[in-house]
Amino acid sequence: MSRTERATLAGGCFWCTEAAFKELDGVESVTSGYAGGHVEDPSYEAVCSGDTGHAEVVLVEYDPEALTYEDVLQVFFTVHDPTQLNRQGPDVGTQYRSAIFTHDDDQQATAESFIERLEAEGAYDDDEIVTEVEPLEEFYEAEEYHQDYYEKNPNDQYCSIQAEPKVKKVREQFGEAATQ
């Protein structure tokens, strides 16, 4: 049995990010939650207020024999716009910021190097990547009704407009690694 690695990522609404990562072979689980703030055990309502400092995040648990941390980062930078400061699409506020919360020094170095490489390649034209990279201090699991939201609410209009394109993008661009 292989070991499990973890990545904690903030790329806007956690429903959308969770749905995209669940498409990948090698991903064992994706949990929506909150990280990066100063309030212990925050509620969704508190995080939405923008006063907790937390971002909506996903904790991705994956098999490193099937996916590398760089693979996870590649998907992350494909399914959100890392040049938008404190927003993704219609969602605005620091709780929707682009951030990578690292679990160790290796992840920190890999994430920083990955971003430097994207910028050197001009991956986002002249737009600067604003993704924060910082050590994960605490992950707080979101309320149960947020878990697997896209799967549980296939007719939700927000999911149809925001999550479905991300899921399709993962299937198209990472087809051999995507579960279908």
Structure description:
This protein has 180 residues and is α+β, with helices and mostly antiparallel strands. It has one domain: Peptide Methionine Sulfoxide Reductase, Chain A. Helix content is 35%, strand content 22%. The chain has helices at 14-21, 44-49, 69-79, 105-121, 149-152, 157-173, and strands at 5-11, 27-35, 55-62, 87-88, 91-92, 98-102, 132-135, 139-141. Strands 7-6-1-3-2-8 form a six-stranded mixed sheet, covered by helices on one side. The protein has a two-stranded antiparallel ribbon with strand order 4-5. The longest helix is centred in the middle third of the chain and has 17 residues, at 105-121. It is globular.
Major β-sheet profile: 6 strands, mixed
**What is the highest CATH level, the class?**
Alpha Beta
Strands across the major sheet, in which order? 7-6-1-3-2-8
The number of helical elements comes to: 6
**Estimated structural class:** alpha+beta
Task: Tally the structural domains.
Answer: 1
Shape: globular
CATH architecture: 2-Layer Sandwich
CATH homologous superfamily assignment: Peptide methionine sulphoxide reductase MsrA
Query: Strand portion, in percent?
Result: 15-25%
**Terminal Cα span:** 24 Å
Summarize the entry for a quick read:
The protein has 180 residues and is of the alpha+beta class. 35% of the residues lie in helices and 22% in strands. It has a 6-stranded mixed β-sheet with strand order 7-6-1-3-2-8, with helices on one face.
